[in-house]
Known about the structure:
Elements: H1 2-17, H2 23-32, H3 34-46, H4 54-79, H5 82-93, H6 106-131, H7 134-142
Amino acid sequence: MKKIFLLAVAFFAMQFSFAQASAEAKTYVKNLGVKESLDMSKKDISDLILPENLTNFNSEFDAIAATFITSFENLFHENYTSEDLNKMNSSIENNTTLDPIMPKDLETFQEKAMKAEEEMGLSLEGIVMKYGDPVKLEQMQQE
């Protein structure tokens, strides 16, 4: 019985550690245009992909992009208050200038952001190598 109780406590603790980002954080990342930027990159990269691999590439790219966006949403949720996020969202939506608002822990924020970007970059590189046209990839390396 004690083991079941401990397992239940561990399960609920894990659920809290995977908390979703706030609506304000999600809106902020949306307002930053992260998805649109990734979609433009996808379009550019698609030229390197073999036509028969495009469907699989698109699926894997979309999964990587979704994971990256979720990471960024969580990062903003963890490092800014709802009030700060609302101010930043309002500034973007109204096209007004706002004094910079620093995250709670700038160094940790930057480290986590860089880690998320690096992980995404490596994942994208992997799927380009997996699904890409070897001739185009070789030409690109020679340039």
